[in-house]
Amino acid sequence: MTTRSSMRVGWIPLSLALLLLLGVIVVYIWAVIREDVRAWIPYISEAGGYPPESGVFGIFLFLGALLGLLTMTLRYFIVIENTQRNNKIVKILNILGLFVGLVSIVGMVTVATYPVGFNSNDDNKSEWRKHILLPHTIGAFMLFIVGVVYTLLQTIVTYLMYPRHHGLTLFYIRLVCGALALISLITMMSAVSVENQTWIDRNENGTESGEQTTGQRISIAAEWLLALFFISYFFTFYKEFQKISLSLEIQINRFGQSSSHQDLSTENHI
Q1: I need a surface site. Which of 4, 56, 140, 248 has the fewest CB within 10 A?
Q2: Quick check: helix, strand or coil at residue 260?
Q3: Contact 27/57 with Cβ under 8 angstroms?
Q4: Backbone angles phi, psi at 4, to 5 degrees
Q5: Residue bearing the bigger pLDDT, 202 or 67
Q6: Would you tell me the crossing angle of helices 214-235 and 168-205 to the nearest 10 degrees?
């Protein structure tokens, strides 16, 4: 006896975007209620840097990494199935996009593995910065910087797939999300660079305080906007993925010994 079922996969990128959006909002509200962070918007990692929020934040990020892996892998195969195989430019960009996407996922896992509050009260600051803050920062750069590169690559691929597979509206939406994410990233990194120099000067002069500076406020706002635009980009995959179905086939032999067989096939209806 053979049982076969199939389902559309639009829920995968939709769940990814909703999960990440819900994760940052829930963790922020929880951290403010517990007074672990200022009510004025803190860094996302700061809001999710203290237990018990850090554990919940990590769960959201790990689940997001899994859904992100599925989304980016399916996107890779969708592009293969919907473009001419002799189109070398699309092929190269598609492979590069998958690689860049996987690097971004590794960054997300790294951030989840090394949760950190930027206002740490540890006595040994140098050890904290070396073993916790450093890998966390590297992971955040991998997630955001490489993630923005992924959105830009996918935007270019989207344009190259026009007009055979979709209209220009989808391209413009992705272009806006990707461009705004890039602007937010540049703003955040510029503000962080200025703030780091200011922080060094304050410490050398013995004038460090716990108040947020203008540079911090700008970088924090830019980080939240970057996260918002990056997450929003995956909402644009929903309609495209909804045209794809995955099939699962289970076979049971007549002697009563059961065996299962997964047939992961893609039915393209674009």
Answers
A1: 4
A2: strand
A3: yes
A4: -130, 135
A5: 67
A6: 160
* DSSP string across 109-129: HHHHHS---TT---S-HHHHI
Higher pLDDT, 167 or 117: 167
Q: What would the two tokens of residue 63 be?
A: 């689940």
- The 10s digit of each residue's pLDDT in 123-165 is 666 777 778 888 998 999 999 999 999 999 999 999 998 888 8
Query: 231: number of CA atoms within 13 Å, CB side?
Result: 20
CA distance 143 to 108: 5
Exposure pattern of 195-226 as b/e (b: 16+ CB <10 Å)?
beeeeeeeeeeeeeeeeeeebbebbbebbbbb
What type of residue sits at position 142? M
**CA distance linking residue 96 with residue 152, whole number of Å:** 11
| Half-sphere exposure in the Cβ direction for 12 (13 Å, CA) | 22
The predicted pLDDT at position 205 comes to 43
Predicted TM-score (pTM) of the model is: 0.84
User: Which residue has 């975007």 as its token pair?
Assistant: 17
CB atoms within 10 A of CB 253: 9
Please state, in angstroms and as integers, the Cα–Cα distance from residue 87 to each residue in 76, 137, 214, 268, following that order: 14, 38, 48, 19
Q: Which two tokens stand for residue 224?
A: 């939240």
Q: Which residues contact 6 (CB under 8 A, 6 or more apart)?
A: 245, 246, 247, 248, 267
Read off the amino acid at residue 24: V
163 cis-preceded (ω within 30 degrees of 0): yes
Question: Contact 219/45 with Cβ under 8 angstroms?
Answer: no
Beta strand segments in 205-270, E: 244-252, 258-261, 266-268
Token pair 């803050």 in the structure block, residue: 133
